[in-house]
Amino acid sequence: MKDKVFLTQTDTTIGFVSQDADKLTQIKQRPPHKHYIKAVNSLHTLQKFARVPQRYKSKVRRARKTTFIMPNGHSYRVIQDKHHLLLLDRLKWAYTTSANLSNEAYDESFAREMADVIIEPLKKTDQASKIYRLGKYSIKRIR
């Protein structure tokens, strides 16, 4: 399961989910230096990857459909959506990205062709997650 690319309804849109960032980079034809959002199934799993500044722990715990860029430069989203959690509870964490070529619109035939496993139902939504950059002493909304 670790090297598979899943096409699934994420908490925000239809996306690719995988623990293999190189495979996602290849599929999306994206520059290899760009980081992916790491979706985690719980705050406990998040603690294994990053330390949330004390003053923002409550905000991160309560956030829905929100990505946080931690002081270490990596992005994380704690998933609350029940459908998306069915997969993440098995994987614990995974890189997540929209199911399209980099800087292109969603194309269902492309997405289905590139995925190893397709998890139905898929319903198109255009709601991207909110993104905040957390500093040691400040927070900034990116999107």
In short, what is this structure?
With 143 residues, the protein is α/β, with parallel strands linked by helices. It has 5 helices and 9 strands.
Describe this structure in words.
With 143 residues, this protein is α/β, with parallel strands linked by helices. It has a single domain (6-141), classed as DHBP synthase (Alpha-Beta Complex), CATH 3.90.870. It is built from five helices and nine strands, in the order E-E-H-E-H-H-E-E-H-E-H-E-E-E. The chain has helices at 21-28, 43-46, 57-62, 82-91, 108-114, and strands spanning 6-9, 14-18, 37-40, 66-69, 75-78, 93-98, 117-118, 130-134, 139-141. It has a nine-stranded mixed beta sheet, sandwiched between helices. The model has no long low-confidence stretch (mean pLDDT 90).
Describe the sheet with the most strands. 9 strands, mixed
The rough form would be described as: globular
Number of distinct beta strands: 9
The amount of beta strand, in percent, is 25-35%
- C-alpha end-to-end distance: 32 Å
Count of individual domains: 1
> Could you estimate the helical fraction of the residues in percent?
10-25%
Number of helices: 5
Provide the low-confidence segments as ranges: none
Order of helices and strands: EEHEHHEEHEHEEE
- Average pLDDT score: 90
CATH superfamily: DHBP synthase
Q: Class by helix and strand content?
A: alpha/beta
User: What would CATH call the class?
Assistant: Alpha Beta
- Architecture in CATH? Alpha-Beta Complex
Output the strand order for the largest sheet: 7-1-2-6-3-5-4-8-9
CATH fold call:
DHBP synthase
